[in-house]
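Input:
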Amino acid sequence: MAQGNGRSATSRALDLLGAFDVRHPTLTLTELAARCAMPLATAHRLVAALEAWGALERNADNRYQIGTRLWEIGLLSPVPRRLREIALPFMQDLYEKSKENIHFAVRDGHDTLYVAKLTGHRAVPIISREGNRLPMHSTGVGKALLAFSSTEFIDTYCARPLVRCTRHTIVEPGRLRRELAATRDRGYALTSEEMTLGSCSVAVPVFDARDEVAASLGLVVHSVRENLAKYVPDLKAEAAKIAKVMVEHHCDPYPGFVHDLPRGG
Amino acid sequence: MAQGNGRSATSRALDLLGAFDVRHPTLTLTELAARCAMPLATAHRLVAALEAWGALERNADNRYQIGTRLWEIGLLSPVPRRLREIALPFMQDLYEKSKENIHFAVRDGHDTLYVAKLTGHRAVPIISREGNRLPMHSTGVGKALLAFSSTEFIDTYCARPLVRCTRHTIVEPGRLRRELAATRDRGYALTSEEMTLGSCSVAVPVFDARDEVAASLGLVVHSVRENLAKYVPDLKAEAAKIAKVMVEHHCDPYPGFVHDLPRGG
DNA sequence: GCAAGGACTTCCGTTTAACGGAAGTGAGTC
DNA sequence: GACTCACTTCCGTTAAACGGAAGTCCTTGC
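Output:
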């Protein structure tokens, strides 16, 4: 028939890829069809095409997963690639000094998008992953991005429901605004078990040529550790170096990257 | 009409994604259509669908590039993700000792596929990138993978034309075989300006539970540096630790990952 | 300023390949 | 041996993909 309910074959195939996320890294055919609200036969046919090309793979227990070929293609995406190329060496320097988890993140929509992460054996195991999204109000890098964003953006963000991650997450808009003001005043963001119990973080903004926040650089430690402020000078120094290289390479507000939301500063 | 020349809409859309590679990270619509041998109007329609979903983005000069969303989805691919999770902390330890470029690679088809890379400011700039492919006979990690593969695989590999990367690349099958035998004897692979002039490397294999080579771990330095053998004990120690964790996590021959080629050992 | 060239975009009649309900297969359970 | 559940295949219908051609909008050259 080709009476596909308004959606093109291509967009349906892409929806199947979009059905995968951190919580669902593998899916059965039935789950895929259900998540995309399409008939099993349709999902079956499209999935076969995706598998033939290498976008999906089938593992030992017949579950589908994102294919290695898609990983390879995804790494060609210029935005994360350039940002990573620039940030990673400086993050490496930071890691050597601190031996803690180092994060580099940008804002995408209303989320913190983790672009790069360094970790070692001495660092606390944490949930962040490269390519992952976490809320802006419960993470160090997120708060650093949010606090230095435009007032309009902060207004929009605070007007939306604030997800509670732990009992320490700030979910009251007023308290969040005060927290963001304090962050701006001191020049760096702090969190204390707001994303995960047992973890604290400190982060600084990375500014572009127009002095708008383009990214943020942060570090996560186990909560019982000593004061986080001691990391701020190093974080600021590396953030400044990253900003300098980003400006030199014209990586500023990277057009088309931060979608459908007002930026401005 | 829907008289698409034998290919489904889905596979054509995927072919458009496949048109991008390291040499062509951005393409115009016309280039895309040409590379995929499809009419401009068709490419236009499919590209619009890919862009709407976020698989492609359009940059300032109207060129298409792989979208950030595809990068995010690609990172969900279990094989590279698990391997990276396991290998990176050990690579970090290796980096701290050597301050050189650290690579972790697997074989995919007849290529060396770079799964993880660590680099810093003190390391030599090199062409390898995560998600990239390079030949097996001209790279340290590639030779380590090749030397410890099955004899059938080595036969197949040597029978194919050996690409010359520099004037030092071994392109004679007989010489490559002797080089691989020497690699097996000494237990680690060496290269000397065989991939890039000015760079040398040393690498060791990482074995799985069945004692077949599953991956390799290597390090690249500037060619004027002192002897590479001094890095071997550390490389072997970390490779053994990675192998141990891989076996514990059942990451051995990872079904469906290394495609269409005989493995065995 | 205007024509030519090139790259992208839109239009639209034709037709075939995508659609999905239904029936078939096959592994696992009781 | 009947039941369930997940996946696979079949096949008639038809709407959605196809792509040639015409249109738009740049940029370049004279």
